[in-house]
Prior knowledge:
Blueprint: H1 13-25, H2 31-41, H3 45-49, H4 54-64, H5 73-80, H6 90-105, H7 113-138, H8 141-163, E1 199-201, H9 204-211, E2 217-221, E3 224-230, E4 235-239, E5 244-252, E6 255-260, E7 263-265, E8 285-288, E9 292-297, E10 300-302, E11 309-311, E12 316-321, E13 324-326, E14 344-346, E15 361-364, E16 367-368, E17 378-379, E18 383-387, E19 390-391, E20 400-402, E21 407-411, E22 414-416, E23 422-423, E24 433-437, E25 440-442, H10 467-477
Helix pairs in contact: 1-4, 2-4, 2-6, 2-7, 4-5, 4-7
Amino acid sequence: MALRPLSAFPRLVPYCLALTVALAACAQTDDGGTGQPGSGGTNGTAGTKGSGGTSAAGGTTGAAGTTGAAGTTGTTGVAGTTGTTGTAGKAGNGTAGTTGSAGTSGAAGTTGKAGTSGTAGTTGSAGTTGKAGTSGAAGTNGVAGTTGKAGTSGAAGTTGAAGTTGTTGSSDKLIGWAAAGCTVSGISTTTGGGNATPVTVNSASAFTSDIGGTGAKVIQVSGSISGDFNIGSNKTIIGLSGAKITGNLTMNGSVNVILQNLTIVGLNCSDVPSNGDCQDGEDAITVEHSAHHIWIDHLDISDGSDGNLDITDLSDCVTVSWTKLHYSANRASGYTGEVHHFSDLVGASDSDTDDAGHLRVTWHHDWWATNVVERMPRVRFGDVHVFNSLYTATGDDHCVEVGDSANILMENNVFVGVKDPIDSTDYSNSASIVVSKGDVYTSTSGQTANKGSAVFTPGYTYTLDAAGSVQSEVESGAGPQ
């Protein structure tokens, strides 16, 4: 604890003054008096005022200052100034005062006791070491180092990124012609509505209002809606849990569109006369007339009257991923015309030769399932890549159909119980090419052979899953998630 100044004890002042005078008389021979300013030396400035030597008596009080290493004793030294009343000893004690300064150096340690006070001064220095403990507070910055640990978590995030190239990591990542290697009108990848604030719609009228035009929008579909809808450019359309659209979605010249997590049910031939052909009706989804950079992901598409998903008329840069395509068992109930369970076209006609150089389409982790008879897909002119997809459409006529001037790369797909997994003769011409690599055929019949060898090289990066894991991962992962 700090010493209290003498002034705090008024009843002791007279006695202390008398003692001061008596000590002053002995100041010429008492080295202890000179040592006391050494104790004051602990206080620095107070020692200087002890040049009168009279402060040496005050220095005795400073010995008690040994307890107050904090230097508060210096304040008591000020009280020692009162000792200046010993004017008679001023001249004789000047040198002694100098000795007091020496006491500051510790030389006054000759006095013994005063030297002890010097030791107390050393303790004060130790107090300075306590401030060095403040550097320990700087160690608190070490806590900031804990943030560095959070950086370690970032490293773990890097591992997550690596996961995107793994077996299941690709399920929510854009891969294929819609992602890279395919540039049209300065656009080289598909972003849809980007970071636009999502709006949620639950009616056909609200949906129609939001999907039009070219402004960037993110549209969330809630519940079930019905109708024929024309989707404009720069749109992301995402289905919330259980979202369903019955009718037709068309992208007529649209650019930069993403469709995700939706169930799309076509008109099931209800849009044609009962004695007509289903091919005269609407597709469930149509991509046409130079539409480009379209990503169709995690959809369930069924019962299109003409087809489930057709990509035609100079359209380009399309990826269809993790999508299930099928027809309901009762599609043709009560219908007498051709049921036309034909799922997907890439290129509408052999005569559309201007499609050459367009129709670049990637199909991956897709599932052609129940009641599909043909077109999984049927390809004309385009560079089409089909990988890690599943075919279980038992009772079909053909699966992949190689049409005029098609160039098709098939990799690590799985065909189970189907006929003509790869039909390379019935619809092709001399320019048609198909190359199968790593495809697996289980209980199949008919054609699987390659045609030609000059298959295109995809202009994008992708990682193939092992064919042995394709059936289980596609059956669990295709469709809305």
